[in-house]
Design a protein that fits this description.
Rossmann fold; binds NADP nicotinamide-adenine-dinucleotide phosphate; seven-stranded parallel β-sheet; 12 helices; globular; two-stranded parallel sheet; alpha/beta
Length: about 280
């Protein structure tokens, strides 16, 4: 088979390539793509094909996707530009004759109030309209992103937020990457599926404080603020208005359980429990 992965210069895409190799897909059947192929040189040395694919350059996408039976479209990282970029990728996939497209979306993209969701929802709709056989991996949050709170707590023994007692069912990037590899290796078994992927164990920010305390070996507290006070604290710490609003918006979503999911689909797909956040945080220390 032939599998093309976008975003292989990034964290998740690279882990997917590693997972495909670990699961026995021959290196020559994998094409790892990104904007800067120099970042993929070590994969090329291991026999993986590498190609430049820039979402803003449709010709590069058509060339990189040509002949792919299966394509993993890892959502781009340029928030606000992703709808046209993903449109380019989907159109190129169709033109290149890709057999099956797997897209990394966000939890409950069709009804989520998270500010990140509309670009994912639009991409899912474009995929539906494209007629391409596809699978949606609606990923919950990566546990790794909460290392920000750990860094704050490391200095001060406390981190602030405005998530109240909302629950987060996070999992590690390697967990999500492995799920993507499972689907990429048997796309026909997952055609049309919409997977809400999340960690087995949900936690609140108070639980996160306890987990961080365990990793750092010190007492850590979570201080719950109002949205206004949280925004002011972030701006006081040097964030611009837009970024502060984005961060507060994430906590609002958490407070409303937008990142809570109990389907257990992720652990079923990968055939093992998801990684507890304490283990992910410890690995990052
Ligand atoms: N669920 C979560 O908690 C969470 C958290 C953060 C992000 N995300 C989403 O999940 C995706 C993967 O996460 P990650 O941690 O692997 O992010 P990452 O390390 O930032 O990787 C993003 C990848 O997207 C590529 N990319 C960005 N713009 C592109 C463009 N115009 N054309 C082609 N490729 C482009 C990047 O290429 P370059 O190397 O050239 O920049 C990189 O390979 C992110 O892009 C974002 O959509 C999810």
């Amino acid at each position: 088979m032939s599998v093309v992965v976008t975003g292989a210069t990034g964290h998740l895409g690279r882990l997917v390539v590693e997972s495909l190799l670990e699961r026995g897909l021959p290196a020559e059947e994998i094409t790892a793509t990104g904007r800067d192929t120099a970042k993929l040189a070590d994969l090329a040395e291991r026999g993986v094909t590498t190609a430049r694919a820039d979402f803003d350059d449709p010709a590069s996408l058509r060339a990189a996707f040509a002949g792919a039976e299966t394509l993993l479209l890892v959502s781009g990282s340029e928030v606000g530009k992703r709808t046209p970029q993903h449109r380019n990728a989907i159109e190129a996939a169709k033109e290149a004759g890709v057999g099956h497209l797997v897209y990394t979306s966000v939890l409950r993209a069709d009804r989520s109030t998270l500010s990140l969701a509309p670009e994912h929802k639009a991409t899912e709709e474009m995929l539906a309209d494209s007629g391409l056989p596809h699978t949606l991996l609606r990923n919950g949050f990566y546990s790794e992103v909460f290392s920000t709170q750990m860094e704050q707590a490391r200095e001060q023994g406390v981190f602030v937020g405005s998530a109240g007692e909302g629950r987060v069912s996070s999992a590690s990037r390697p967990d999500y990457a492995e799920a993507a590899a499972v689907v990429l290796l048997d796309p026909a078994a997952h055609t049309g599926a919409v997977y809400e992927l999340a960690g087995d164990q949900a936690w609140t920010y108070a639980d996160l404080a306890a987990a961080i305390g365990q990793v750092l070996g010190r007492e850590v507290a979570y201080e719950d603020l109002s949205e206004d006070d949280h925004r002011a604290a972030l701006i006081g710490a040097g964030l611009d208005e837009g970024t502060a609003g984005f961060v507060v918006g994430i906590d609002t979503g958490i407070r409303e359980d937008e990142l809570y999911e109990e389907s257990g689909v992720l652990s079923k797909l990968i055939g093992r429990p998801t990684t507890p956040i304490v283990d992910t945080l410890r690995a990052g220390v």
